[in-house]
Specification:
Number of helices: 24
CATH superfamily of the largest domain: Butyryl-CoA Dehydrogenase, subunit A, domain 2
Largest sheet: 9 strands, mixed
Distance between the termini: 44 Å
Number of domains: 4
CATH topology of the largest domain: Butyryl-CoA Dehydrogenase, subunit A, domain 2
Helix content: 40-55%
CATH architecture of the largest domain: Beta Barrel
């Protein structure tokens, strides 16, 4: 999935990508690599670009723009990133955004309509600005400016130089000083010590006509989009050309726009690698069948999805207060720029020798990604900034706005919830189960048959009332299976008691020789003379079996049937004779998991759910009316919050790790919110929903590992904080195993989402 998730944004992306392919086809981009550098100036396609409305997409209509938002521009930049679109589009749209924020509407209109081309430096370099009665005089050289040689107008940063002592004293007194103070407050300029009443050392941002500057085109690492050396030698700049922006805003805007383009780069690399892996044959089969290749492609998808989710939110947050805006912009910039570089490198690796050739486009995308990192700074630079802002208290709550028709659902929910206020979570469940509000996603009479909007409205009303409903545990999966496949008698016997929380279920699936590979189950179920079943075998890794009243069991009823065939789904009374539950002592010293032995355990005929020999279908049941979860408003959990509280006193390398954890946590929240929004809109959730576990479980492990590491010697002592951190660290090791190992999940993602070929059938061991 790309940055945009609405139908409108998907249409915009398709239109932008289609236009780019026609206006500058891939062979035209390649030509820029293989010929002498093009003469700087206005590209042949620029008027078309303006006519399409793409130059002013993100600008107000009053300033000649399309009235859109930064998110619209991000969607377009992602598409152009996929095409490695050449020329000054990104620099011009960045300059226009800065001019708009900086209060220069006339200049904004000129860029939005295509009358002029813009560019922006990302820092002052050696540029200094001396104040004059009419404005500033510029001297020095900016850092390399992308598309600077094409630009008619360049936004430059300069450090205000100190004045001579006499002049500064004269201008730093009386009304002049007061006026300067008021100007500082109004324009949001970077702070610095005053020298004689002026802002010596402060960075100012100025819009300068390129014709007044010395501009020298440079041979860029990305030949499709050259940089330029931009110098000023006593260049006067009128006061009205000073922009009311500060360096943090420039950094945030530039970061988000480059991050959006980088999402396109990463996406191109992923698609190219996966398509190649699906057809390239070595050793008699497609290389995409090899797990090493398959996992690498799946990892690329995980990086792409995190980057897209973070850029999506950062583009929406650019009007937030500076700390919040800076936090999410830094997280997005770090993640997307790194994803572009790493995916481009991995693409070349999967392509093999072909990817190392000049003729293949892979190096073009690697060059584009590398230049972005060189201009904006490494990922750690932005992670350090994110950690600092988070340590200072910046947080980004994720809000879900429901449509107007949620009001009716809210009113109904409040009436019901008024009757359970003050109850504990278990009591709330018992009271709400008969009303359908304990599981509103289920069909009546067990739930409300609620759609996504009603489900979310109820969740929000529960939160507003300070109410929690106890978790169903394994019954979360039992109930849908019984609704879809159970007999009326089974439904009457088990459903309402399960929804009330009266029955505690365990899942008897995994076996010593069948962990993630459930099709290899060996536990046997044989018919008895009375039509019942005799169960023999062993289950393992069964959570809460020692406390469960009932279990769901998969057993083999047809030993000669292949793979998933010949399995039957049973309901088991855990007090039945012949069941031996043996708690397993885990590495933490706890016993949450169990071995369960079945020794001639007799089950009645009505213990079967669904058809005999078709239990796999029952086990994989999900209802059409799927449950919708409300994304957490705050994306940093307590473990990460504790690390952020300490971030300010940690050394740089550790702070960067904390920043990386913050990026993962916020990406998870954004992926969840994007998935929910798509469900509310009746759209199919994208890949994000499928890769959440691949991000979440290692993230939780890394949080636990760093928490223990930071304790130093105290972490070796099983007392107080050391004991808690050690337990959390050890317990976290199960997260990438339980519910399907990370490695198996990577296989599933690569096959189902990327279309890579399934693993070959295994050979017999003997």
């Amino acid at each position: 999935m790309g940055i945009g998730i609405t139908p409108e944004h998907r249409d915009l992306a398709e239109a932008a990508g289609g236009w780019a392919a026609r206006a500058v086809p891939p062979e035209a981009v390649r030509k820029l690599l293989d010929t002498a550098p093009a003469r700087p100036g206005r590209p042949a396609y620029w008027d078309q670009l303006a006519a399409q409305g793409l130059l002013g997409l993100h600008l107000p209509e009053a300033d000649g723009g399309g009235g859109g938002e930064l998110l619209d521009l991000a969607v377009v930049l992602e598409e152009l990133g996929r095409a490695a679109f050449p020329g000054p589009y990104l620099p011009t749209t960045l300059a226009a955004a800065l001019l708009h924020r900086g209060g220069a509407p006339t200049l904004v209109r000129e860029l939005a309509t295509g009358a002029r081309i813009g560019a922006a430096a990302l820092g002052p370099g050696s540029l200094t600005a001396v104040e004059t009665p009419d404005g500033y005089v510029l001297d020095g050289t900016a850092p390399p400016v992308l598309a600077g040689a094409d630009a008619d107008l360049i936004v430059l940063a300069a450090e205000v130089a100190a004045k001579a002592e006499g002049e500064a004293a004269a201008e730093g007194s009386g009304e002049a000083a007061s006026a300067a103070d008021e100007a500082d407050k109004a324009d949001g300029a970077d702070g610095a010590e005053r020298d004689g009443g002026r802002r010596a050392g402060e960075t100012v941002w100025l819009a300068v006509d390129a014709g007044a500057l010395a501009v020298r085109g440079q041979a860029s690492a990305d030949p499709t989009r050259p940089t330029a050396e931009v110098s000023a030698h006593g260049v006067p700049v009128p006061a009205e050309r000073r922009l009311t922006v500060d360096s943090d805003l420039v950094r945030d805007l530039a970061g988000v726009l480059w991050a959006a383009e980088s999402c396109g780069t990463a996406s191109w690399a992923l698609r190219t690698a996966a398509e190649h892996a699906a057809v390239r044959e070595q050793f008699g089969r497609p290389i995409g069948q090899f797990q090493a290749v398959k996992h690498l492609c799946a990892d690329m998808l995980v990086r792409c999805e995190q980057a897209a989710a973070l850029v999506w939110d950062a583009a929406r947050a650019l009007h937030e207060p500076p700390g919040v805006r800076g936090l999410v912009a830094a997280l997005a910039t770090a993640t997307a720029l790194d994803a572009a570089v790493s995916c481009a490198k991995d693409c070349i690796q999967i392509l093999g020798g072909t990817g190392f050739t000049w003729e293949h486009d892979a190096h073009l995308h690697l060059r584009r990604a590398t230049v972005a990192c060189q201009l904006l700074g490494s990922g750690d630079t932005h992670r350090l900034r994110a950690a600092r802002l988070a340590a200072d208290g910046a947080r980004r709550p994720l809000q879900l706005e429901l449509p107007a028709d949620a009001a009716e659902f809210r009113t109904e929910a409040r009436t019901v919830l008024d009757g359970v206020r003050g109850l504990d979570p278990a009591a709330v469940r018992r009271a709400l189960a008969p009303t359908g509000y304990a599981a509103p996603h289920l069909p009546a009479p067990y739930g409300l048959g609620a759609g996504p909007v009603q489900q979310l409205a109820i969740q929000q009303e529960l939160a507003a009332a300070g109410l929690r409903i106890s978790d169903l545990g394994i019954a979360t999966w039992v109930v849908p299976s019984l609704i879809a496949h159970g007999t009326p008698e089974q439904q009457e016997r088990y459903l309402l008691p399960s929804l009330r929380g009266d029955l505690l279920w365990c899942q008897l699936f995994s076996e010593p020789e069948a962990g993630s590979d459930l099709a290899a189950l060996r536990t046997r179920a044989e018919r008895t003379a009375d039509g019942g079943w005799r169960i023999n075998g062993q289950k393992v890794w069964t959570s809460a079996a020692q406390w469960a009243s009932h279990g769901i069991l998969l057993a083999r009823t047809e030993p000669d049937a292949p793979k998933h065939k010949g399995l039957t789904f049973f309901l088991v009374d855990m007090a039945a004779p012949g069941i031996d539950i043996r708690p397993l002592k885990e590495i933490t010293g706890d016993s949450l998991f169990n071995e369960v032995y079945f020794d001639d355990v007799l089950l009645p005929p009505d213990a079967v759910v669904g058809e005999v020999d078709n239990g796999w279908k029952v086990a994989r049941t999900t209802l059409d009316n799927e449950r919708v979860h409300m994304a957490d408003q705050l994306t940093f959990d307590t473990g990460l919050e504790a690390l952020l509280d300490r971030a300010a006193v940690l050394d740089g390398s550790v702070r960067a790790r904390v920043g990386a954890l913050a990026a993962e946590a916020h990406a998870l929240g954004c992926i969840g919110l994007r998935t929910t929004l798509q469900q509310v809109s009746g759209l199919e959730p994208g890949a994000g929903a499928s890769i959440r576990k691949l991000v979440q479980t290692p993230h939780q492990q890394k949080v636990a590992e760093l928490a223990l590491e930071l304790l130093g010697p105290d972490g070796a002592v099983r007392e107080g904080a050391g004991e808690r951190a050690l337990h959390g660290f050890l317990m976290s090791r199960c997260l990438t195993i339980a519910g399907g190992t990370t490695q198996v999940q990577l296989n599933v993602v690569a096959e189902r989402l990327l279309g890579l070929p399934r693993d070959p059938e295994p050979r017999p061991l003997i």
